[in-house]
Specification:
heterodimer; A: mainly alpha; B: alpha/beta; 7-stranded mixed β-sheet; binds pyridoxal-5'-phosphate
Chain lengths: 145, 406
């Protein structure tokens, strides 16, 4: 298993740089997020069950985790590409890290890339729910380990 | 044909930009934009003659009362009601239906009775009936619809019996555009002694309405779908039925005399208009009706029909992965569809990036979406101020989206 070489802050800065290239153009930004969504591997059907749904998302988002060598592996899927793109960004930042790193993570990229304005308040709330759920798993694993 | 460029000039919002693009507003089914005369009427009232109605014996109160009652008269003519007393101001379609369910329904429904609604109803014409039905031991039964989105008339006829006390159907569906054969429905329902409520939210501004000819017992609609303000609408009811109905809310103008021994109620329409009404918006609603009368409902509808035809053909031709939901023979200007492999939310958001406003989701018609096995659709609904160029822009946007992601 490869361990993430960049820390959470570095990966976020990388994302911010990527979005900077889009020059704040709304359409390109949405297309880019959708592309990210389509690149995220599909979740196995067996995990797309109600128990794995994140509460508070307007669209459907399924999230599951695996715990290997003290690190959390997240897998997710959604019925819409934009939402899938958003969670793929979170996975890029938080995957393969220890529960403690995830719990302590300060996630600033979303605001920095101006995503609130692009996707609207309902989806932004959904995004907050995704973060909450990912941190919730980290808490659960940290209690176990 | 109406002069669309001239008409557009009456709507200040249509010259605004959204996300750096000229606004293309195709969410008229949800609410349409307001002409300047309506917006001005609101300001004028508060600036120049703000006053309560029916009480004060002073000049301003007189002026406010006059303007307020003028709207009632305009509405009476607009739907050809026999008397202006049959027009009850409400906060909109939803309140109108709740009023009928809570008063007529409460007084007349009992154990085992049935209320028929169609599968394509807005939640506003389902839930109020479910609430009163649960209280009274009655049931709400859906009339099935065909794949094309039309009521299956023979099925409706089979459902009729002496148990049916109310038939509540939408005149034109907000999610499919279907115009229902309400005249025939009313006639059949009356043969079994049922009362009929017509949800006119999507029809009042687009279709000719003659409540006497229709012979419906109740007709409800909202001002905001008729170029008027939000939170405003009216209920039409036949005078004798309204007279027999118990009041809805208590207090204010609905009272004739109050004592602790008992209270007597005012006559129609005030019996159903408790408290200080929404005066400014009622007056502005009147201006919206005058606006429709000035431009001509038929002329506007003809332009809308041409837009729908143009958009439908263009969508079929240029976006082959689109599937239209609702292909009734007789439709108002609603184009509802899905696109293969792209979620309706995502399409809506991408169109929005180009300043194009459409509605996505279930359109408050979840049972209808379930009928089609869908989570929702993309809905473009047109108004008389929309143009063929706007339709072009919209289709162009869709083609682009499909090219990227379909
Ligand atoms: C067919 C139909 N019925 C009822 C309503 C509810 O109208 P309102 O929210 O103005 O009460 C709507 C509004 O979308 C509608 O389209």
């Amino acid at each position: 298993m490869t361990v993430a070489t960049k820390n959470i802050e570095e990966v976020q800065n990388e994302i911010i740089d990527d979005f900077d290239l889009l020059d704040g153009d709304r359409e390109s930004t949405i297309f880019y997020i959708m592309e990210l969504g389509q690149e995220l591997p599909k979740l196995d059907e067996q995990y797309m069950i109600d128990e794995n749904l994140i509460k508070g998302c307007q669209s459907k988002v399924w999230l599951t985790t695996d715990f290997q060598e003290g690190r959390i592996i997240y897998s997710a899927d959604s019925n819409t590409d934009i939402t899938k793109g958003l969670i793929s960004l979170l996975i890029r930042v938080l995957n393969n890290r220890t529960p403690q790193e995830i719990i302590n993570a300060d996630l600033f990229f979303f605001e920095k890339i101006g995503m609130n304005g692009v996707i609207g308040s309902q989806r932004s709330n959904g995004f907050a729910s995704m973060i909450k759920q990912m941190k919730f798993y980290a808490l659960a694993y940290s209690a176990k380990s | 044909m109406i002069d669309v460029e001239q008409l557009r000039k009456e709507f200040p919002i249509l010259s605004t930009e959204v996300n750096g693009h000229q606004l293309t507003y195709f969410d008229n089914g949800a609410t349409n934009q307001k002409p300047k005369v309506v917006i001005d009427a609101l300001e004028e009232y508060y600036k120049e003659y703000n006053s309560n109605v029916h009480r004060g014996a002073h000049t301003l109160a007189d002026k406010a009362t006059g303007a307020f009652e003028e709207t009632r008269t305009l509405l009476q003519k607009f739907i050809n009601a026999a008397k202006s007393e049959e027009i009850i101001f409400t906060s909109g379609t939803t309140e109108g239906i709740n009023l009928v369910a809570q008063t007529y329904g409460r007084a007349n429904l009992s154990q085992g009775d049935e209320i028929l609604v169609s599968t394509m109803e807005h939640h506003s014409n389902i839930v109020p009936w479910q609430l009163i039905a649960a209280e009274k031991g009655a049931t709400v039964r859906p009339i099935p619809i065909s794949d094309k989105g039309e009521i299956i008339f023979e099925e409706f006829e089979k459902m009729l019996s002496d148990k049916v006390k109310v038939v509540a159907v939408v005149h034109a569906s907000n999610a499919l555009g279907t115009v229902n054969p309400v005249e025939k429905i009313i006639e059949k329902a009356h043969a079994f002694g049922a009362k009929v409520l017509i949800d006119g939210a999507q029809s009042a501004a687009h279709l000719p309405i003659d409540v006497q000819k229709l012979d419906c017992d109740f007709f409800v609609t909202s001002a905001h779908k008729m170029f008027g303000p939000t939170g405003m609408g009216f209920l039409y009811g036949k005078e004798n039925i309204l007279n027999d109905m118990p009041p809805y809310m208590g207090g204010g103008e609905m009272i004739k005399e109050v004592s602790f021994d008992g209270t007597s109620f005012n006559t129609l329409p005030y019996k159903f208009e408790a408290g200080t009404p929404n005066i400014a918006d009622t007056i502005a609603f009147g201006k919206a009706i005058e606006f429709i009368n000035k431009w001509g409902k038929e002329e506007m509808a003809a332009h809308e029909a041409a837009l729908l035809k143009y958009a439908t053909e263009k969508l079929k031709k240029e976006v082959p992965t689109a599937k239209i939901i609702g292909e009734a023979e007789n439709k108002v200007c609603v184009l509802s569809f899905i696109i293969e492999n792209i979620h309706n939310y995502d399409v809506g958001m991408m169109l929005d990036a180009r300043g194009i406003a459409v509605r996505t989701g279930h359109h408050c018609t979840q049972p209808l979406m379930a009928r089609y096995g869908l989570e929702g659709t993309i809905r473009a609904s047109f108004s008389a101020y929309n143009t063929f160029e706007e339709v072009d822009r919209f289709i162009e946007g869709l083609v682009r989206i499909v090219k990227m992601f379909g």
